[in-house]
Design a protein that fits this description.
With 293 residues, this protein is α/β, with parallel strands linked by helices. The chain has two domains: 223 residues, Alpha/Beta hydrolase fold, catalytic domain (Rossmann fold, 3-Layer(aba) Sandwich), CATH 3.40.50.1820; 44 residues, no CATH class. Helix content is 37%, strand content 15%. The strands form two sheets. A seven-stranded mixed beta sheet has the order 1-3-2-4-5-9-10. Strands 6-8-7 form a three-stranded antiparallel beta sheet. Helix 1 crosses helix 11 and helix 3 packs across helix 7. The longest helix is centred in the N-terminal third of the chain and has 15 residues. The protein starts with 7 loop residues before the first strand and ends with a helix.
């Protein structure tokens, strides 16, 4: 696909749906330094909802998981849009899909739904907040930073055991249960020839993007979304900490107001990895939205 081999996780319904029960394909795309298998807990929980007979797919973005790593030193946001467009051309060329995105994936699906509104039936954004507003005068410094980073080798930590990978996941997210961390670890890392466990992500993802985040362009795209949108956020997510007060939840919700049709839900007892913290609650919200819309 676009010159790369893209790995896709697929969960098929246990019984072939009848014509009167034909669900749209449900496509779930992951966030930065995550993998498509990360949605397993939500997919499991969907089996106890009215959306149990849907086919679900979750790709690994380029340079993540089991997808091919391109020969590049920088990753560009438009490539995710191009990859998603090519994926849907392959998997559901004639029918709109239901599209879910988490974090970085949430940002991708919001842009894609505005650019290809006819391809999306329903859209779910799991904490794809976007980025702080930038100003043109920040451009030179950002480009200088990128040039400097091109000369700096990037690396990700390797781990001696798979259990150490699981502990790292639990350190990243203290709400993550030990059994889920152990399962995720085997999909988040792979043992190398050196015997150590290496994260399935290209270290080049860590480099600064030299292109500024232009809020006005993003909002112009969001205004073109025609699908109903479900926004879900964790009550314990604090983006002020991420951005040092440069971008707040209040500002995000002002941006979200430009979307023509949007439902908002605040999910208690979870943070940014809400599909790990509360997969059953996320699955119920998804199913209610997809069935009732």
């Amino acid at each position: 696909m676009r010159g790369l081999q893209i790995h896709v996780n697929r969960w098929a319904p246990p019984v072939e749906p009848t014509p009167d029960r034909q669900r749209p394909l449900l496509v779930m795309v992951h966030g930065w330094m995550d993998v498509g298998a990360s949605f397993q807990f939500v997919v499991d929980a969907l089996q106890d909802t009215a959306w149990a007979d849907a086919e679900v797919v979750a790709p690994d973005w380029r340079g993540f998981g089991l997808s091919q790593t391109p020969p590049t030193d920088t990753y560009w946001f438009p490539d995710y849009l191009g990859d998603l467009d090519a994926l849907l051309d392959t998997l559901s060329p004639d029918r709109p899909v239901d599209l879910v995105g988490h974090s970085m994936g949430g940002n991708v699906v919001m842009s894609y739904a505005g650019l290809r509104p006819g391809r999306i039936r329903r859209l779910i954004n799991l904490e794809g907040f976007g980025l702080p507003r930038t100003a043109p005068e920040q451009g030179p410094k950002r480009m200088q930073q990128w040039l400097d980073e091109l000369k700096t080798p990037m690396a990700l930590t390797a781990y001696d055991t798979l259990d150490a990978v699981a502990r790292r996941l639990m350190k990243n997210n203290p709400r993550l249960r030990a059994d889920r961390a152990a399962w995720l670890a085997a999909h988040w890392a792979r043992q190398g020839e050196d015997g150590r466990w290496h994260i399935l992500g290209d270290p080049a993802h860590k480099r600064t993007n030299p292109v500024l985040y232009r809020v006005e362009e993003v909002l112009a795209t969001w205004r073109q979304i025609t699908a109903p949108v479900l926004w879900i956020e964790g009550a314990e997510t604090n983006i002020d900490v991420w951005w040092g007060g440069r971008f707040t939840k209040a500002e995000f919700h002002e941006r979200l107001a430009v979307v023509p049709q949007v439902q908002r839900h605040l999910l208690n007892e979870c943070g940014h990895m809400l599909h790990h913290d509360q997969p059953e609650a996320v699955a119920r919200l998804l199913a209610d939205f997809l069935v009732g819309a």
